[in-house]
Each structure stands twice: as C-alpha cells, then as structure tokens.
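Fold this complex.
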Amino acid sequence: MNLELRQIVMLLGTLTCLLGVILSIRTARTRFDRIETSGQDVNMGITRLPALAFAKLVAFAALIALPAGAVFIANYHTFEGVHEVRGCASCHVMLPMVNDMRDPNSGTLAARHYKNRWIAEDQCYHCHSDYGLAGNLEAKMTGFRHLARYTSRTYHEPIEARVRFDNKNCLNCHAGTPRFEAVQSHKTAHERLVSNQMICLNCHGQAHPTSAQRTPGSNDYARLMEKMK
Amino acid sequence: MRLLHWEALCAIVAFALTLLFVLVPGPYPMALFTFIAQPLFAIVAIGYLSKVLADLRRQGSL
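Structure:
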C-alpha cells in the first residue's frame, strides 16, 4: 500500500479528531465529585488505576494532548498544502492567474515558466514566497489576511497586489546563469535590480493577465474564470 | 459536578471543525479552522489549566 503524505495526514487527522470527540463527550459527562467518593478502580489491562486518576487522564487527553495533535496535523494543510498550485486555485479570485499559467497559448511570464518547465512544481509558491524564515512567515501572514478577506467577501475584482514584488524571487534562480550574465543590461542594471529600484517586469513583460482582462465583464473574464479540470 | 463541561463542549465543536478541514481543505474550512477552531482549543486549554491550578491549590499542593 503506497500512501502519500497528504493521505497519511487525512487518516491521522481523522483518527485524532474522532478520538478527541469521543473523549470530550466522556469528559463533558464525567461527574468528578461522584467518582472521588466512589473509590472504584479501572482495569487498563496492564495496570489498575483509581477511577478519579483515569478520569483526569481522559480529560487531559481530550482537552490538551489530542487538540495539540489535531492542530499540528491540520496545520499541514495550512503550511504545506498551500504550496501547491491547487491550493491557490481553490479561491476563485486566483483562477485567472492559474488558468493563464496553464494556457499553452499565453505569453505571460508565469505561462512561459510553466510550459517550459523552468519551475517543475509548486509554481505559484516558488515566485510568491521570499526565501528565508522571515520571508516565509510574512508570506503566511499575508495568506491569513487574504483568507479573511476572501471568506468574508470583503474584496473587489480585479484583485491587486498590495506588496511590491521582490526581484530576489527571480534572481535566486536566474542570477549567475550564463544566459543571464550574457545580457549586458543585466550587468548595467545589476545594483538597481538587487535593490528593487528597477523591476524585472520592466523588460520581461506581464507576469499574469492584466487588471483589465481580470475585470468582470471583460472579453477574457469568462475564459480566465473557467473552473480547473 | 461536571467540572469540565463547557471546556469539553467547546473541544467537541473545535474537533468537528478541524475534522472538516482535514477532510476538505478548501478556503472556507480553512477559515473555520484558523479563526474559530484554533482559538477555541486555546480557550479550552486555558479553562482546563485554570481548573487544574484551582484543584492543586485546594489540595494544598501549590
């Protein structure tokens, strides 16, 4: 049996949550004062425990240990699952970017990177999360803000990026390669590119469909908003 | 006396929302997990620990 990490997370998460619900129901119904006075023991197979100690163990598992496990497992989807293109496309406002990226006839930067397999997987996250711990945390916090805006429907189409794109995301892969170094303007503008005074898109065209294309009612809107297959 | 009644009920709600997110990881289950289930688990932990502390004080262990 060949299980993927995602399936293992689902299986473990389901078991943890179901066990948590069962033990929480038991804890909610437990009358600790009655158990204390009854003085009974509970047979656990390998040992016998006083009923009160057993009830306290169950309460600890239900209210501390299993919630910690459930949060840890479920956050796999929050911190790892969102690396996948599918994760980005699950919000419909991102469909224009993903559909365009997968369109073999599109000439945008994202589409060219995708069809030429310059980035093999997790294409969105590769270009939109700055490398390093601080960058990643910042990207996560931005993600939480987007999640709140999306689910509360407090956004307007076409969506606009609030942060300035960091050239480091491009230079991490391109800088130092023979093709990059062979271009004279890259050498001339090196300082301005590194300090983000000049953006790569100035010369290399649109990364994604334009705001006009993503505006509801435009000629391209219906095509860009098609549900992913 | 059901000493941990409301904490357990909150935990049940939080586990149910977490289970939904684990099985269907879309934006709405993610929002429910992030903004409701996780804070609920934190409130449950605080409620539980405060009662454990009160119990320890009552027994004279602290």
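The interface with chain B takes residues 9-10, 13-14, 17-18, 20-21, 24-25, 27-33, 59-60, 62-64, 66-67, 70-71, 73-74, 77-78, 81, 87, 90-91, 144, 147-148, 150-151 of chain A (CB under 8 Å).
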